[in-house]
Amino acid sequence: MGSKMKLLFFIGKGGVGKSTVSAITSVKLSLLKKRTLLLSIDPAHNLMDIFKIKDVNDYLTIKEAEIDKWTSRYIKKIKMDIKCQYKHLSSINIEHFIDIIEYSPGMEEYSIFRYLYETVKLSKNYDYIVVDTPPTGITLKIITFAEISVRWIKKLMEIREKILSKKVYIKNAIGKKDEYGYNKEEDKIYLKLREMLEDNIMMLDLIRDNSFIIPVLNEDKLSFLETKKIIEYLNKFSINIDFLILNKFTGNRELLDNFYREFKKDIFCFDLKELDFYLNINNFKYLSDEYIKKYLIQ
Q: Given CA atoms 105, 109, 113, 119 in this order, what sign does their dihedral have?
């Protein structure tokens, strides 16, 4: 992955115009000759309805993730890995327990996170990946997944080391002397945990150091309250929000001033709706790119 790649997450309540703003930002970046991947990880994506084509210009590529297919493949891989690792437990019908993995809480969020990770790894030539996101709850979990996973995996690695050391004590206790002790570097489970740790640290560094989380809201109370919750939640993980985008702005200056006082952040206003454009690149030249120049191009 290129060290200068930036990840942009547009997040907000359904219907505020995340896809619209993602599309606008991607086109503007491409017109500035920045290699840009516009990626939808929303199962209900509609980017192709906006653009109609995948390759808009030489600097912009559009991709809609087939989340259901990816999730099915990923769950199948997990099941196979577990069966191979614990095949010695086949006598207790471990397959029965493995089959319920796909119904585990958080599996959808984790599979989307893994899809994003794999996409980032394979997108070394892009300057920007602009992410059109699923509903707020899922997106927040995806954004914070790496940090939570790093904490958990480190603890699991500590527990695995203790298990390996106990194995030596047990062998000695039953008369099977183990002169060499345990070697975690030969333990498949420990090595898998370390691999997972490295993957999550890579994503954590990218999200902390090279990402922008950009809430999109409208003038209504519900999207305002959801934006407050987004900022409060991300603050718990020390993830900063630099600016907001107020879409479908009607020109209500009093309301805008109230938003400034409440959020204490830059707010960039659009008056755009989904049906306002079916891609005409020339139209994008007249849209404000102040937020891009101030924050995204550095």
A: positive
Residues constituting the chain: 298
Domain that includes residue 18, residue range: 6-296
Q: Return the structure tokens found at 211.
A: 């990402």
Does any domain span residue 190?
A: yes
Confidence of residue 262 (pLDDT cuts 50, 70, 90): very high
Q: Is residue 61 part of a domain?
A: yes
> Considering its fold, how many domains does the chain have in total?
1
Output DSSP code: residue 60: E
Burial code (b: 16+ CB inside 10 Å, e: under 16) for 240-262 equals: ebebbbbbbbeeeeeebeebeee
Q: Which residues are within 8 A (CB) of 141 and not within 5 positions of it... i.e. 6 or more apart?
A: 106, 109
pLDDT over 90 at 198, yes or no: yes
Answer whether residue 198 is part of any domain: yes
Distance CA(58)–CA(52), nearest Å, equals 16
Phi and psi angles of residue 124, each rounded to the nearest 5 degrees, phi first: -65, -25
Q: What are the tokens at 56?
A: 């808009």
- Any idea what the CATH number is for the domain that residue 237 is in? 3.40.50.300
Is 1 part of any domain? Answer: no
Q: Which residues contact 162 (CB under 8 A, 6 or more apart)?
A: none
Mean pLDDT of 68-92: 69
- Please spell the DSSP secondary structure of 183-234, one letter per residue: -GGG-HHHHHHHHHHHHHHHHHHHHHHSEEEEEEE-SSHHHHHHHHHHHHHH
**67 phi/psi in degrees, rounded to 5:** -60, -40
Q: What confidence score (pLDDT) does residue 1 get?
A: 46
